[in-house]
Amino acid sequence: MSVQVARHVGEVLDNLSSVTGATLLAGGTDLLVEINFGRARPATVVAIDRVAELKNLERNGRVRMGALVTYTRMLDDDPGSPALREAARTVGSPQIRNAGTLGGNLGTCSPAGDTLPVLAALDATIVLRSAKTERRLRFGEFMTGPKKSARRPDELIVAAEWDDAGPAQTFMKVGTRNAMVIAVAGLALVVDRARKRVGAGLGSCGPTIIRAAEAERFAEGLFADAGWERASRPSDAAAKEFGRLVAAAAKPIDDVRGTAAYRRHVLAVMGARALARVAAIA
Amino acid sequence: MSTSAPRVRVRGVVGESVERPDAVPKVKGEFEYASDLRRDGMLFGATLRSPHAHARIAGIETSAAKRMSGVRAVITSGELPTRERFGLMKLDQPVLATERVRYVGEPVAIVAADSAEEARLAVRAITVRYEPLAAITDPVAALQQGAEQLHRSGNVIDEVIVVHGDPDTRADVVVEGEYEVAMQDQAALGPEAGLAIPRRDGGVDLHVATQWLHEDLRQIAPCLGLPESKVRLVLAGVGGAFGAREDVTLQIHTCLLALATRRPVRMTYGREESFYGHVHRHPAKLFYAHGATKRGELVFVRATIVLDGGAYASSSPAVIANAACFGAGPYRVPNARIHAVGAYTNNPPAGAMRGFGAVQSCFAYEGQMDALAAKLGIDPVELRERNALRNGDPIITSQPVEGSAPVAEIVRRCADAPLPPRGPETDPIALPGGAGNLTHGEGVRRGVGFAVGMKNVCYSHGFDDFATARVRLMRDERGPLARVHTAAAEVGQGLVTVCVQIVRTELGVERVELDPPDTTIGSAGSSSASRQTWMTGGAVLAACREVKAVLLSRARATGRPPDDLAALLDEPIDKTVSHRHRDTEPRDAATQNAGHVAFLFAAHRAVADVDIETGLIKVVQIATAQDVGKAINPLAVVGQIEGGIAQGLGLAVMEEVILKDGHVRNASFTDYLLPTTLDMPPVVTLLIEHPHPDAPYGAKGVGEPPTISSTPAIVAAIRAATGRTLHRVPVRPDDIVFDEPYRSGWRITPGDDPRRAVRA
């Protein structure tokens, strides 16, 4: 195994275009597990954790988060999304949060990736760059399956971008332990009061992160009625209906972490609670 | 013998909280664990394991592996020096599988290579032709007529029937229930590791993390074809044990590779391999009936207990005996019949784990006590107090409890401990779901649960249980010094401070050093059954008293005061003593005898917040009162109690080795969940000290009781919060949000032979 240590984006892109099958290493919290389990034996590893350009975090109405921003920084700095901060808190232990990055979560592209439902709910754009070109994909186009994305082998995930959607957001995650647990189900709910838009992203409930489109439209109707700019309190029946629509969007399976029936049940609970929680925030 | 007060007060004696010598090195990462051992020219071992739960081996091809770079040895069953088998209680386990594999993970071949990576690659290059066979993975099914026999002796590993009084008597009120305990992993943080070094005389030295050096030696030497005199074992740094190191894992393999290559060989399991490499806690199905009078006096307990022993016997016979003997709990029960059977299956072998059989039955009988309390309309604590065993009362094997039996006292003290402030919490991280941010109070209900448990200390049923200690008292340039040599394994329980504290107390010498444990001295017995303070502590105490006798005679002869150590130690004093506990009787067909040395008791009260809509749980507080006899090192006792409760909490709400057709589906710490600091609540610990007359300073042993009744107490709290029946541990979120009570899938009258079970 050869390890190249890159210091600039250009070096990374050169490596990716010249070495077939080069594997990127950022925080290593996924890659090292794969290697330890004997599931990955990369011939060439390009370590990108020293590339300063990928650590930027810009906010001026539009948020641009560099791929190497760690979960710890999402907690410590204002990451331009309260839901993203809540999602970062659910990731692993302090050691994992110090090492793991947004770009790593995107690169692995697991349905259980904790930041991904938030990026979906924010309708974030993923910025990919190769030696030849840069392209921007909406999150829904970027993630194509479990641990599968539209990233080409010669591309580097540079950043994610989204519109600052304001404070009415939350992230919830279910796991059978109170910390350091892989999501059995995750839900990000974003209510962008200025743009009159609701985003709901579901994690660990299907082959990709799922947007609960019907639930989003239903909630947009509720906010239109209540007044987008005002804090409100949805009726229990409305919250329950929103939860039902969230659960209906899921395509869960039985696996070692939980049953499909439980995932559907708990998504409905999370949906109702999340809606009540964010509706109160204006 | 009287002990005169030393001239200078010695620090760190019995009864004081003493810091462990290995505490700081372990925290700083400087402690040398077995997996850190190295030697020049050392090779690395690796193991090929069966991917099948049950299969015939039609052929093994190793020539490709042998040709690979760095490979020094490849050994299959055909290349073993002997046909000997190993096992703690039955020699039923082959060193490497021969014609048949009986569980997923059974060792089939071993390799030594220049690097760990080359060894692993060579293992993958070995081809084994398997002919898969139907696997039996339900222990009740394994006992039915017509089930395929997994061993020549049949599928019954052992059977224990306890009959007491008139078990078929009637009672005013009867409750019945079936219960299940899933497979729990010991999850020691240090994986299995050992280093074997070949000797010039054809023998081998093995440095290994284990619980009992001499028992390992007894099993290893015949399998190597060597006399015990040619095999020396030295204890290497142990990263936790909890029973998982009682069985031989890589010991024989490492020695075989070292002898074959004439080079030092180290084997270390990774976490995934560790899940397959060691035994686990027995999964159990338990069928109970309790009868009581209207006033709440127990009339009878009838139970059928089926333990899944997995593919090989390990310590199953003793686990079965414990599940049966303590199957009615710490109560006065005039009539009982417990029919306990351990079955061979094609699941991974089960063996020792903290609590050892007492855990499984306690979960069931404490569930029954709560059900009985509810039916009678009596407070659950009061029902337990009313039926508590007292000193001199017989347990259901008819053996009277002697020494101390403060059951009513621990129940009352525990029940009276202060409760936590009324919830719910305001910080979401302290609520069910924790970091997952699921509730800000919605759906959260609080429940309180109570449980009591009991277990034996030391080995039982006629086993010749002894410990050996050598104490040398001498003088060097810095003054008096005592050295202690035993073969006892420090596995984290704190024996290292206990031995030093005893020597300081008895001999009045502050400088006490421990020699590395090895097999050049007599056996200390196992670091299990909560026994080392009683046994090795007792041996050190006895050796100290012999040393003291010499000191006193020297004092008399010279006219010096007996505590003037410096003046009396021109010649060192050197005493080696073997210590035995009182005899126990062998187990007869109905175990109606004095089978045990003494009994340990603990009570637990749990307070839990449950989010009834998500089924997630936050244990808020545990209070415990434990009968410890005497706390030799109170800080270490509290550490044992809190650690044991964490393990009991794990079994209650998250720890399960999930099996599917004999395969472990969660062989990693990503998916085998252990409690974190956010899951583990504050513990209110009340030490109840009634010295046992047989034990050194009256200290009864503390390691296991915290693990026994903490689990049912937590589940009782969850039941109180949710109204669910919850007869299976660990409790899963599904069990709370969907009201589907546990069903074993079998119909059986409690107390009957499980071979008469019918599918429900």
**Average residue pLDDT of chain A:** 97
Strand content of chain B: 25-35%
Number of helices of chain A: 11
**Mean pLDDT, all residues of chain B:** 96
Interface with most residues = A-B, 33 and 39 residues
Any idea of the CATH topology of the largest domain in chain A?
A: Uridine Diphospho-n-acetylenolpyruvylglucosamine Reductase, domain 3
CATH level-two architecture of the largest domain in chain B: 2-Layer Sandwich
Assign the CATH superfamily of the largest domain in chain B.
Answer: Aldehyde oxidase/xanthine dehydrogenase, molybdopterin binding domain
Label the CATH architecture of the largest domain in chain A.
2-Layer Sandwich
What is the first-to-last residue Cα distance of chain B?
Answer: 64 Å
Content-based structural category of chain B: alpha+beta
CATH top level of the largest domain in chain A is Alpha Beta
* Domain count of chain A: 2
**Mind summarizing the main beta sheet of chain A?**
5 strands, antiparallel
| Count of all domains of chain B | 3
Q: Which fold does the CATH topology of the largest domain in chain B refer to? A: Aldehyde Oxidoreductase, domain 4
Describe what this molecule looks like in 3D.
The complex is a heterodimer of chains A (282) and B (760). Chain A is an alpha+beta fold. Chain A has two domains: 2-163, Uridine Diphospho-n-acetylenolpyruvylglucosamine Reductase, domain 3; 169-279, CO dehydrogenase flavoprotein, C-terminal domain (Enolase-like, domain 1), CATH 3.30.390.50. Chain A is built from eleven helices and 14 strands. In chain A, the strands form four sheets. A five-stranded antiparallel β-sheet of chain A has the order 4-5-10-6-7. Chain A has a four-stranded antiparallel β-sheet with strand order 11-12-13-14. The mean pLDDT of chain A is 97. Chain B folds into three domains: 23-31 and 466-580, 2-Layer Sandwich (Aldehyde Oxidoreductase, domain 4), CATH 3.30.365.10; 34-133 and 191-238 and 245-277, Alpha-Beta Complex (Aldehyde Oxidoreductase, domain 3), CATH 3.90.1170; 280-459 and 588-755, Aldehyde Oxidoreductase, domain 4. Chain B is built from 18 helices and 32 strands. In chain B, helix 12 (495-507) runs parallel beside helix 13 (532-558) and helix 15 packs across helix 17 (710-722). Chain B is globular and about 70 Å long. The A-B interface holds A 33, 36-38, 86, 89-90, 170-182, 184, 256-259, 261-262, 265-266, 269-270, 273, 277 and B 120, 270, 272, 429, 432-440, 442-443, 613-616, 618, 653-654, 658, 665-666, 668, 670-671, 673, 675-679, 732-734, 737-738.
